[in-house]
Amino acid sequence: xxxxxxxxxxxxxxxxxxxxxxxxxxxxxxxxxxxxxxxxxxxxxxxxxxxxxxxxxxxxxxxxxxxxxxxxxxxxxxxxxxxxxxxxxxxxxxxxxxxxxxxxxxxxxxxxxxxxxxxxxxxxxxxxxxxxxxxxxxxxxxxxxxxxxxxxxxxxxxxxxxxxxxxxxxxxxxxxxxxxxxxxxxxxxxxxxxxxxxxxxxxxxxxxxxxxxxxxxxxxxxxxxxxxxxxxxxxxxxxxxxxxxxxxxxxxxxxxxxxxxxxxxxxxxxxxxxxxxxxxxxxxx
Amino acid sequence: xxxxxxxxxxxxxxxxxxxxxxxxxxxxxxxxxxxxxxxxxxxxxxxxxxxxxxxxxxxxxxxxxxxxxxxxxxxxxxxxxxxxxxxxxxxxxxxxxxxxxxxxxxxxxxxxxxxxxxxxx
Lengths: 285, 121
Prior knowledge:
The complex is a heterodimer.
Chain A: E1 7-11, H1 19-29, E2 33-37, H2 45-49, E3 52-66, H3 76-80, E4 86-89, E5 92-95, H4 105-109, E6 115-130, E7 135-142, H5 150-161, E8 168-171, H6 178-184, E9 189-194, H7 198-213, E10 218-225, H8 231-238, E11 243-248, H9 251-258, H10 263-266, H11 268-284
Parallel strand pairs in A: 1-8, 1-9, 2-7, 2-8, 9-10, 10-11
Antiparallel strand pairs in A: 3-6, 4-5, 6-7
Helix pairs in contact in A: 1-11, 5-6, 7-8
Chain B: E1 2-7, E2 25-30, E3 36-40, H1 50-60, E4 65-68, H2 73-81, E5 85-88, H3 94-102, E6 107-108
Parallel strand pairs in B: 1-4, 4-5
Antiparallel strand pairs in B: 1-2, 2-3, 5-6
Helix pairs in contact in B: 1-2
């Protein structure tokens, strides 16, 4: 695998299609690799890897803080803030921390230098190792009540930016909104996970449009595959999207996965299945 | 005393808008002079923080009372900071609620909701 094209994002428009199943098992079978759980609102990759030697770091954002004795009430900051995170009434500035997007514009514009930036903790990231370091496992956690996981995802992906050589599997949040865009932004390749249902096909359409917008090379893996009617497969056919693999709707795989076991370690049959998938992915890169 | 009401149309017979922050217009009415005017809500289609910006406008326009169906907690902070009292509307139209207000039939809005903020996604 070429070192400069090794970041593989695994995403899907719908939750529960198998992003974590696929990214965990691909990372586990890849030998030396990196797994990054960007689903910072409900991370669960760590439940499979049970990483050791966990190192933790907090994630902060910068929030404006006013020195009211310097503020002259010009309201340049209030008018500037596109997110309406600032207000000024009765000669008193108001900051709405959860509305603030930490752009720093108010600080730059304040003619009286009455605004400084204060750190606000919004979550944390963790780094640990699996199987004596075969897989370096990163994960992030957004604190309850925080509006956006993007700063956590940024820090997760920044941490890993230096590594470069190993294949990296980015387990994305579900959907196709900002947090997913942030997760795939620097990916070299996108795996779109779907399932053979109308919901699966509909949400595949959304992430398909997203990866096209980002001009990312991509292909689909259909999980929970059966011989029944398959709207997701039909969607791929109609849009000429390559299907990298089909993971069968399989009791053993389902059971292992719901017990938070890594399937490729438990079953030779499943090991072969994911080895084949991994081979196909590497051929694409 | 100047009062403000979020309205759907620029008309005293307009219905009170169910949203405070995203209402298209605000009706300002002076109970002493019986004069009224309208304000376009620049925050109606904004990304976020509409309630905050709307509350700022209400305060800037000198209203001392707001008659509304509901109000989010961020807007409430700005309004209470500005000394604007929030009353719950009980009638359909702006005119009926102004009458109810001057007849002292309106009660303070006491269920401030945590907001319908988009999730930043």
